[in-house]
Amino acid sequence: MRTVVDLTRCQGYAQCVFLAPDVFELHGEEGLLYATAVPGDQEERVRQAAAACPVQAILLGEEVSTGAR
Ligand code: SF4
């Protein structure tokens, strides 16, 4: 599974960091770092994080494009 965070929406509430600390990490005020390729054992946590994000900034799915290439 892949995840992409819309950083223009992210307000640094850190709900995702709390729920899936192996995937999301906050640096400083609003600097969110995350892994785009979600390990299988983290998928459920990432789904919970996406559901908990107050601004729906976390996008999920195999079809999510990172815009790379
Ligand atoms: S829960 Fe949403 S708003 Fe909060 S840090 Fe994560 S992505 Fe950003």
Which structural class matches the secondary elements?
Answer: alpha+beta
Query: What does the oligomeric state look like here?
Result: single chain
Number of helices: 2
Rounded to the nearest angstrom, the distance between the terminal CA atoms is 18 Å
Number of domains: 1
What is the H/E string?
EHEEHE
Average of the residue pLDDT scores: 89
| Arrangement of strands in the largest sheet | 1-4
Give me the count of strands: 4
Query: Which range does the strand content fall in?
Result: 15-25%
3D architecture notes:
There is one protein chain. A hairpin with a 3-residue loop joins strand 2 (24-27) and strand 3. The chain is built from two helices and four strands, in the order βαββαβ. The chain has a two-stranded antiparallel ribbon. The model has no long low-confidence stretch (mean pLDDT 89). It has a single domain (2-61), classed as Alpha-Beta Plaits, CATH 3.30.70. It is of the alpha+beta class and 69 residues long. The protein has helices at residues 15-19, 43-52, and strands spanning 3-5, 24-27, 31-34, 58-60. Bound molecules: iron/sulfur cluster. Iron/sulfur cluster (SF4) binds next to helix 1. Residues 5, 10-16, 24, 32, 53, 55, 57-58 line the site of iron/sulfur cluster.
